[in-house]
From TrEMBL:
Cofactor: pyridoxal 5'-phosphate
A Pfam family it matches: Cys_Met_Meta_PP
Entry similarity comment: Belongs to the trans-sulfuration enzymes family.
The protein, known as: Cystathionine gamma-synthase
Enzyme Commission number, as recorded: 2.5.1.48
Amino acid sequence: MKFGTKAIHAGVEPDPTTGAIMTPIYQTSTYVQRSPGDHKGYEYSRSHNPTRTALQNALAELENGQHGLCYASGMAAIDGIIRMLKPGDEVISTNDLYGGSYRIFTKIFQDYGLKFHFTDMSDLNNVESLVNENTRMIWVETPTNPLLNIIDIKGCAEVAKKHNLLLVADNTFATPFLQNPLDLGADIVMHSLTKYMAGHSDVVMGAAIVKDDELHKKLAFIQNACGSVPGPQDCFLVLRGIKTLHVRMERHCENGRAVAQYLKNHPKVEKVMWPGLPDHPSHHIAKEQMRSYGGMISFVLKGDQMDDAIKVLERFKYFTLAESLGGVESLCGHPASMTHASIPSEERQKAGLSDSLIRLSVGIEDIEDLLADLEQAIG
Ligand SMILES: *Cc1c(COP(=O)(O)O)cnc(C)c1O
């Protein structure tokens, strides 16, 4: 099956009892047993739910994995993955990481005796130099949020294999339409399904997808023991969302290119970050590991004044100021005061997160309207 066919058909079967073409919302907490242990594979909805099973199977196929697990949020998925580690274990990650991931690593798990290293992963020597006998995991996010840096997943996988480490890839920005980390050697793909996968800004959910049976067992055990599961109605919404993932992503990419080119030529714009631009520092890696470049763009204004950025954000008509990304509607954000406010200012500057940096999630509206909105807002 090609990608679009998979997005529509993978994991879902018409309902065997009624023929309903859409997977029903199995709004039930428990399942009848005819005799103790004699059931149809479902005992209790923390462990399994048929709507969730359909979504998990669809996700596994889209990411070329064997098993999918859906969580109550992207953060819950990260939580479930990190819980595989023990006090004393170390994780190497990027210094340009989603703010929530940075927060759970440093404000929650560090207190449980885990150690996290943040480095510029665009140079794999930085990664390898941090490996020691306590290292267990490499955590990659690519493209990164919000600087749109690209990390070489295959290169990280080589380092991980050499030192027997788990490689986790947060594939939220790229989606399986643009990039399949398992094919590039990652052990676990993690998603905030809240973003492009669900695609309509109406649900919060996360996922982990793996090939390995043992790894799946471990993650499923932790999830069932700790309980961070999504409800069946939310699973239904994500299932519906991914049926149009390929069509939406094509338009996101197309609009993303037009917006990036527009900003690139704008006299008031200092810098544009979009992996599809030939002068992006890791464009060559993006070209290797991604099928196209997506609709996430960051840019910095000339003079780098926070006030100027705030004025632009207030003037936008279609780019709505809001946290989150990946929905059909265009959104804009100001990482320094919003998503990345939890990162200390000093760390932010060190990682290249300027005060006037504006992040756009370019939606799938008509491009003429989006460009006109940028024109009036930036002036
Ligand atoms: C949003 C996001 C998360 C967290 O997911 P939630 O669904 O908001 O809990 C993790 N990683 C990235 C890259 C994200 O954008």
